[in-house]
Amino acid sequence: MSRFSRLKRTTVKFLRQVFHKPKAKISRGSIITVLALTIIFFVALGLRLQPLLDSQPIVRAFDPWLQLKLTSYITENGISAFFTWYDDSTWVPFGRDVSSAVYLGVPFTTAFFYWFLNAIGISVELIYVAIVLPAFMGALTCMVIFLLGRELHSNSVGLFSALFLAFIPAFMQRTVVGFFDNECIGVFAIVLTSYFFIRSTKKGSMRSAVGAGLSLAYLLGSWGAADFMLGLLALYGFFMLASGRYSRRLLTSYLITLSLGIFLGGLVPRNGFDNLTSFSMLAPIGVGALLAGYEIWQRIGVYREATASVLAPHMKPILLGLIAPAVGAAAYFIFTGNEELTISPYQSNPFITLGTKFMSVINPFFRLDQRIFASVAEHLPSPWGSFYQTLLVLIFFFPLGMYFLFKRGRDEDWFIFLFGLTTVYFAGSMIRLGLILAPAVAVIGAVAAYSILSPFAKIITQQSVFERRRFRISSALTSEHAIGAYMIVGLLLSVNVILGADYATRMSNPEFSPGDISAGAYLTDWPTAMTYIRNVLPDDAIIASWWDYGYWISGAAGGTTIVDNATFNSTQIAWMGYALMALNLTESLKTFKRWNTTHVLVYWGHGNPGFGGDEGKWPWMVRIAEDKFGSDFIDDATYLSENDATLEAFYSSTLFKLLVYGEPMNQEEATAMGLSNDRMALDAEIWRNSDYTNHMPTALHGAFLEPYVSSEYGTVKIYEIDYTMYDQYVNRTRADWVPDLDPLAGGIADGNITDDEKEFQNYPVVFGGGYDATVYTRSNATHMYYGIQMDNYTLGQDAFGLQLAPLDSTNRPDIRIVNYDGQEFYDGNVGFDGEWDTDSSDLNVREFGTGENVIEFIIPLNSQDPQDVFMLGGMNYQLRFLFWNNVLSGEPTLSSDWTSFWAPVDLY
Is the pLDDT score of 146 beyond 70? Predict the structure, then answer.
């Protein structure tokens, strides 16, 4: 054979090996499945991206702003810097150790995608990765639930599950573009963990068990609802053991999943390993111990009979030793379950803890007693109508699917059955948990749809006959019946698709900046206000607000906040509620001073419930403060009647004053202010409410400066605090004497202390030598009155005077003396050299009076005489009295100590 022929033969052989015809054929069903999944993925993604088509790229709601702040810090400073980050711009003055206070799933997943896309040459800004991530994870979860449905039943069930989940509003509303929060990662991890766990227990796959453990760890590091997954695994393991369905595959899968998940999840600083004593951790660990113990029990079966005979005489003490701790533990749980809720960044229970959120889900009545939880709308129990609104037609398929799962009764069926059963209860207990119910409804609804339609599919393909009494007879159902069934079921399910798509198109705009671009992006108040905080307020500004807006102020504006949506310090939130709802401005300033607050932000919804303003949230401010400090400190019965009607006290609160200050009282005032017609239409609701218009304040009495008011509808108001009134209050608390502020009758200094004057504030004074006197004092806006009743004072023989000086300075006091040195009244001052000098002016010569045992002085405030001590209202000064037992004896030898007094002003 020639060399060419050998080369040709070798080349042909090589090419045949490389470009051989595959032996395995790709089925048409596989192609259709892949095509259907591709369509479902992009439809799910498109539905969730739809709001972005006509709105600005911005994150939604409150919590996502924290996630964006965390992600930005990671991408700008690196991973290691994140774990050493202590954020002192939140929860002033305490700050927050960020890595131990937040979940890592969302910020680190987003940072990974951001780095990956830029690494492969796709230049993209972080904000776009952040707002698109929820939509992408939502569509990806639809793919994972296909795998779950296929593993549970078949490809058809998987496709139905993916299709249903793509259109369920309960899932869509938390995975829509911009809803950049833990839920988009959490639900994905729950479905993925369920898929791997079912696959592991069904096929005995170690790799799947490891996958379930890694998914569980991802969930534990991403969302607090990981407690649900831990509880579900524990419940399933216990149920399988108790119902006699135990298998070694279950033990292997369970232990690998739990041990790997809990260990890796414990590496997340927020979780740590301190929570291993929490009930949500102890329950699955305990079930794992039971499964392992049962396995050991089975393996030592040959020794059980001998062991039983040996232990028989000792069974009573053994049972007592087992039952007594169980009874004690149950009593402990009952006791701690009734304890008052305290949200704090630490746990005081050194043994076993029942998390308050866990208890609040198990027992919704417990949550309703904890008003800091009840104040959040998504924590309230679900009304029955919400199930249909968020699950649509699938709510009717769900019980059918549960029936079919129960009837078939395989191991994987029981897992999904328990999944559905528990999520229905939890979603009913807390409306937010409808999110976890959504994947359960999608899978179980898919089982129902498939189980209903599969017999008709066999009829169409002529593969089904029915047996009756050993006779094979043709089906009475024809293809026409099957087609009719398909049409009815398809029509019902199409309603789900249509309503789901319609929900996507009318999904609410971002609360931060509602409004479509095509409509002029109205309601830009929040973005405008946040821009003002970022660019106008000083860097050291500390901003008080209700906790709802903490993440907005911190994340969107970079401001320093006192409370935020983490709500882990209920005491600080209670103080904020009291500061806003105090019945006088001084109390509010006193509370704001605790944090050296510089500005206060309030959200004014103009009485429109759709705006969600503070005028609708204030009852919770009062209730949370009352829960923390008691009804003796602040009582909601002062503000609300038994039927929750608003009482007069609300209109005296600081919050009400800040909300409505500067608002027009009618259309004429609004027109004069140049307000738009849209704004006036909004204010019309308030103008019809006489309670509001009759109580609108005309001044803030200097406690707050004129506010910054956001654009358009003026919903956000930011006030700078003026602490002058607070300083005046502090001065009053530090003064020895605090005269009343009331009118002074004319001719009051007449040498006689009348009965009316004896009603003035009075203080006892003891002079050296044991001379007693009583001082009566009162002030108006311009003068202060002192009346001295002294039994040892003899008219015409004794002299009596007083000295006035600034606080902590007696170098140059002002002096007023009656019957001194042959003068009826001496008005003078003391120089630096200690010499007495008569005032050059005679402005005060008539402001005294004397009689038997009585001396009266009227001292001017804000005196225009430069030789007098200038006394300003609200400030502290000091005085002392001078007494000559005989005017001929010369200089005073008996004098009282210096006493501080407060020059009164109105404190509101």
Answer: yes
Question: Which tokens is 107 given?
Answer: 């910020």
pLDDT recorded at residue 342: 41
Would you state the structure tokens that stand for residue 819, as one six-digit string? 């019957």
The pLDDT, as a whole number, for residue 32 is 86
Tokens of 890: 């010369």
Task: Give per-residue pLDDT as tens, 150-179.
Answer: 999 988 899 989 999 999 888 888 888 888
pLDDT bracket for residue 312 (50, 70, 90): low
Residue with tokens 């050998």: 6
Would you tell me the crossing angle of helices 479-505 and 434-460 to the nearest 10 degrees? 150
Q: Which tokens is 795 given?
A: 């008219």
The encoded tokens of residue 894 equal 């008996």
Q: Kindly state the tokens that stand for 737.
A: 């004497």
By three-state DSSP, how is residue 816 classified? strand
Amino acid letter at 259?
Answer: S
Which token pair is 45? 């993604």
pLDDT tens-digit readout, 526-538: 889 999 999 999 9
Of the CA atoms within 13 Å of residue 87, those in its CB half-sphere come to 25
Poorest-confidence range of 152-166, 451-465, 591-605? 451-465
Dig out the tokens for 680 from the structure: 């006036």
Token pair recorded at residue 621: 């401010």
Joined together, the tokens standing for residue 853 give 């045992």
Q: How high is the pLDDT of residue 472?
A: 47
- Could you tell me the sign of the dihedral formed by the alpha carbons of 171, 175, 177, 180, in that order? positive
Mean pLDDT, residues 201-225: 93
Q: With b meaning 16 or more CB within 10 Å and e meaning fewer, what string describes 379-399? A: bbebeeebbebbbbbbbebbe
pLDDT band of 320, cuts 50, 70, 90: low
Residue 783 burial (CB count, 10 A):
18
Identity of the amino acid at 236 = Y
The 10s digit of each residue's pLDDT in 248-273 is 999 999 999 999 999 999 999 998 88
Q: Report, as an integer, the average pLDDT of 544-568.
A: 92
DSSP string, 683-735: HHHHHT-HHHHHH--S--TTSBPPPEE-STT--EEEEEB-THHHHHHHHHHH-
User: What are the tens digits of pLDDT across the range 3-20?
Assistant: 667 766 777 676 666 555
CA distance 874 to 906: 8
The structure's pTM equals 0.82
Rama region for 770: left / alpha / beta (φ>0; ψ in -120 to 50; rest): left
Residues 6+ positions from 722 with CB-CB distance below 8 Å:
702, 703, 704, 705
For tokens 């008080």, the residue is: 544
The CA distance from 125 to 826, in Å, is 80
Residue in this structure with the two tokens 């994905």, named with its chain if needed = 188
Tokens coding 457: 């599919």
Count of CB atoms situated within 10 Å of the CB of 36: 16
Spell out the alpha helix ranges (H) of 221-314. Answer: 226-242, 248-266, 279-299, 301-311
pLDDT at 334: 60
Q: What percent of the chain has pLDDT over 70?
A: 81
Question: Taking the CA of residue 210 as centre, how many other CA atoms within 13 Å lie in the half-sphere pointing to its CB?
Answer: 3
712 pLDDT band (50/70/90 cuts)? confident
Question: Could you give the residue ranges of the DSSP H alpha helices within 393-433?
Answer: 394-408, 411-429
Straight-line distance from the first to the last Cα atom of the chain, in angstroms, rounded to the nearest whole number: 115
Phi-psi region of 178 (alpha: psi -120 to 50; beta: other; left: phi over 0): left
Query: Residues with Cβ < 8 Å from 330, sequence gap 6 or more?
Result: none
In the numeric block, the tokens 């005028």 are attached to 615
285 half-sphere exposure, CB direction, 13 A CA radius: 13
Burial tier of 154 (Cβ tally within 10 Å: 0-12, 13-18, 19+):
middle
| Residue 272 falls in which region: left (phi positive, over 0), alpha (psi -120 to 50) or beta | left
Strand residue runs (E) in 477-548: 542-544
- Residue 671 CA to residue 652 CA, distance in Å, equals 27
